[in-house]
Specification:
With about 300 residues, the protein is an alpha/beta fold. The chain has helices at about 1-10, 30-40, 55-60, 80-90, 105-115, 130-185, 185-195, 205-210, 215-235, 240-250, 255-270, 280-305, and strands at about 20-25, 45-50, 65-70, 95-100, 115-120.
C-alpha cells in the first residue's frame, strides 16, 4: 500500500524548493519527512518552526509557504483552531495540514470550514501518512487555483462576447437605417432631423423608443418565444411557426427594415437575459432566423402583389 502511495506521489512531485512552516509547542522531528521527500527528488526542502500564534502570523506576513503544518493539542484544541481561523481571515490561502493524536469532531468541523486537511495519528510527525496528506493538501490547493483561473477566464470571455454582441447589434441597426433611407428617404430624413433636435442620444436608448403599434401584443410575445426556441433548439420543426409569424407580420404591413428592427429588439432582450451563458451561438442562430424571415417575407409580399 505504501509503495502504491509513493508511486502516485511521484506522478505529481513536490515543488523542488518545497517550503513548510511547522507550528507546534516543541520543535518537531522532521528527519523522516525530509528523507521521504529526498527519495522523491525534493532534495532541498526548507522547514521552519514557530511555537506561538503571534510568531506564526508574523512569519506569514513576511513570507509565503507551500504548506502550513499545525499541531493540535487534543486536550486544548481551541487556541490552535483560533489561529487557523485568524490565518484564513488574514487572507492567507496556503494549504494547511492539522495534526492531532486523537479524533475530535470540533477540530474536524473547523478543518472543513477553513479548507484544511486533518491527520489523526498517534505517531504525529513520524506518521507514514503525513507526506500523503501534505501532498493531497497541495493538490487540492492547485485545483482551487485552476478553478479560480478558469472562472476568471470564463467571465472575461463572457464580457468579450457581450461586447461583440452589442457591436453586432449596432452594426445590424446601422444596416437597417441604411435600408430605411433607401426605401423611404423622406421619412428617414424627417426622423434624423427629429433626433438631431432632441440632442445626441445613445443608440440603444433611441432604438428602445421605436415601437410598432401595428403589431399585436400577442404576436410580439409569440415571436419572442419563437426566437428563444430557435436559439436553443435550432430550426428543427419550427418551419410552420416561422411561416405563420411571417404572414402575421406581413399582414401588419411592416416593411422588411421594420421587421428587422423588431427582430433586433427581440434579440437584444434575449441577450440581456442570458446571465452567465454564452451569446455567440445566440447571435449566429438569430441571424439565421432573420435571414429565413426575410425570405418568407418576400414570398408573402409577392403573393400579395399577385393577388
Amino acid at each position: 500500500m505504501e509503495q502504491r502511495s509513493e508511486g502516485s506521489l511521484r506522478q505529481q512531485p513536490f515543488p523542488s524548493g518545497f517550503k513548510a512552516l511547522f507550528i507546534s509547542r516543541v520543535r518537531p522531528v522532521w528527519v523522516g519527512l525530509a528523507l521521504r521527500l529526498d527519495a522523491m527528488g525534493c532534495s532541498e526542502p526548507r522547514f521552519e518552526w514557530v511555537s506561538t500564534a503571534e510568531e506564526a502570523l508574523t512569519q506569514l506576513r513576511n513570507d509565503s509557504y507551500d504548506c502550513l503544518l499545525i499541531e493540535i493539542d487534543s486536550a486544548t484544541p481551541k487556541p490552535r483552531l483560533e489561529l487557523l481561523n485568524a490565518i484564513r481571515i488574514s487572507g492567507c490561502h496556503e494549504p494547511v495540514v492539522l495534526l492531532m493524536s486523537a479524533p475530535d469532531d470540533q477540530v474536524l468541523l473547523s478543518a472543513c470550514e477553513n479548507q484544511a486537511e486533518l491527520l489523526v495519528s498517534a505517531a504525529m510527525w513520524e506518521s507514514p501518512a503525513l507526506l500523503s496528506v501534505v501532498h493531497r493538501a497541495l493538490s487540492i490547493q492547485q485545483i482551487r487555483e485552476e478553478n479560480h483561473q478558469l472562472q476568471v477566464e470564463k467571465h472575461r470571455r463572457l464580457i468579450r462576447e457581450r461586447d461583440e454582441a452589442e457591436r453586432l447589434l449596432n452594426q445590424q441597426r446601422s444596416m437597417v437605417e441604411e435600408l430605411q433611407a433607401l426605401v423611404n428617404p423622406e421619412a428617414f430624413s424627417h426622423q434624423q432631423s427629429e433626433s438631431e433636435q432632441g440632442g445626441t442620444v445613445n443608440l440603444r436608448e433611441s432604438d428602445s423608443r421605436i415601437e410598432f403599434p401595428q403589431i399585436p401584443f400577442e404576436v410580439r410575445n409569440y415571436y419572442h418565444e419563437l426566437l428563444r426556441t430557435y436559439v436553443i433548439m435550432g430550426a428543427g420543426n419550427l418551419k410552420d411557426e416561422i411561416l405563420q409569424i411571417t404572414e402575421l407580420l406581413a399582414a401588419a404591413d411592416l416593411t422588411p427594415p421594420q421587421v428587422l428592427e423588431f427582430h433586433l429588439q427581440c434579440v437584444e432582450l434575449i441577450v440581456k437575459g442570458l446571465g452567465n451563458r454564452s451569446t455567440r451561438h445566440v447571435m449566429s442562430r438569430a441571424d439565421l432566423l432573420a435571414l429565413e424571415m426575410m425570405v418568407h417575407l418576400g414570398e408573402c409580399y409577392q403573393k400579395k402583389q399577385s393577388s
